[in-house]
Structures are given as structure tokens and as C-alpha cells.
Specification:
This protein is about 15% helix and about 20% strand. The chain has about 150 residues and is an alpha/beta fold. The strands form two sheets. It has a four-stranded mixed sheet, with helices on one face. It has a two-stranded parallel sheet with strand order 3-4. The longest helix is centred in the first third of the chain and has 11 residues, at about 15-25. The chain is elongated, with a radius of gyration of 15 Å.
Length: about 150
């Protein structure tokens, strides 16, 4: 099992990181990934005021994002659909209170995250049809964000 808790928002290219995590997960194994939800954590501010090292913001699924570097996790999972199955996608709002200002995760109880669980397929299959999701994806294509793509190798 690969467990990445609040890591993906710190990498230069989430696609590259996810591809490496899938590569090291055994067939039938799981990836459990947690990222901050952009509407609860960044709250309409980019770059993030809560953590200046955030290179990406994340949404579980919505038609448009206010953030210039937003990753739609459902679209991201679809891109790797030939290698993994999406087991769970959950927005975690435990004890989050939208009327309170600031980063509530600094306290002892509030969470404002998205958790998604992927299971690596025993054998790769043809990627599921995206139904034009790639053209609608909230994930900016490499090079469109002003960041250099990560070296592949």
C-alpha cells in the first residue's frame, strides 16, 4: 500500500508523482491519497495563504475552479484508469466550520481534505473512455502553468 497524506500539492507535477506511486504499488494493492480541498483550505486565495509551498489546489469534482492550478481528482483518476480503479473519493469535512476564518487544520479537530483510494489493476487494461474529459479537464496541460514539467525517467 502507498499512503500519501498531504503530499501531492507540494510536487511540481501531480501526474508524474501519481505514476510513480502506481508503479511501486503491487498489483491488487491500494494507494490512499489525501489532499486539501481548495474551497475549504485555500478558500479562494491563490497562491495559498495557508501554505506558500502549495503548487496545486484540488477539487473532488466541479465544472470550474477559481484556482489557476487546480486538479480535478475525478479527471486525474480517469487518466490512469487503465492502471487503477477508483475505490473511493470522499470529501472530508469533519468539524470544519465555514463561518470561521483561517486555517482550521491548525487546531486539534477540523479537517478539510479529499481522500481518494485507488486499487492497482492486476493487469493493465485499455483506459476507459474519457467522454471528452481530457478536453474539459481542470488539470492544466503540462507547460500551461508556467512550471517546467518534471524530468521523466
Amino acid at each position: 500500500m502507498v499512503h500519501a497524506n498531504h503530499c501531492l500539492q507540494h510536487v511540481v507535477d501531480p501526474r508524474v508523482a501519481l505514476s510513480h506511486w502506481i508503479r511501486v504499488t503491487r498489483p491488487g494493492g491500494h494507494l490512499v491519497i489525501t489532499v486539501p480541498d481548495e474551497d475549504m483550505y485555500e478558500r479562494g486565495q491563490w497562491p495559498s495563504r495557508a501554505n506558500a509551498d502549495h503548487k496545486w489546489s484540488f477539487t473532488a469534482f466541479k465544472a470550474e475552479s477559481w484556482a489557476p492550478k487546480s486538479v480535478n481528482l475525478l479527471d486525474l483518476a480517469r487518466e490512469f484508469g487503465g492502471l487503477v480503479e477508483l475505490e473511493r473519493l470522499q470529501v472530508v469535512r469533519d468539524f470544519f466550520r465555514p463561518e470561521l476564518p483561517g486555517d482550521q487544520t491548525m487546531g486539534p479537530v477540523a479537517e478539510c481534505a479529499i481522500e481518494f483510494v485507488l486499487r492497482r489493476r492486476p493487469e493493465p487494461v485499455a483506459a476507459p473512455l474519457l467522454h471528452d474529459a481530457a478536453t474539459r479537464s481542470l488539470i492544466p496541460p503540462p507547460g500551461a502553468t508556467g512550471c517546467r514539467p518534471a524530468a521523466r525517467g
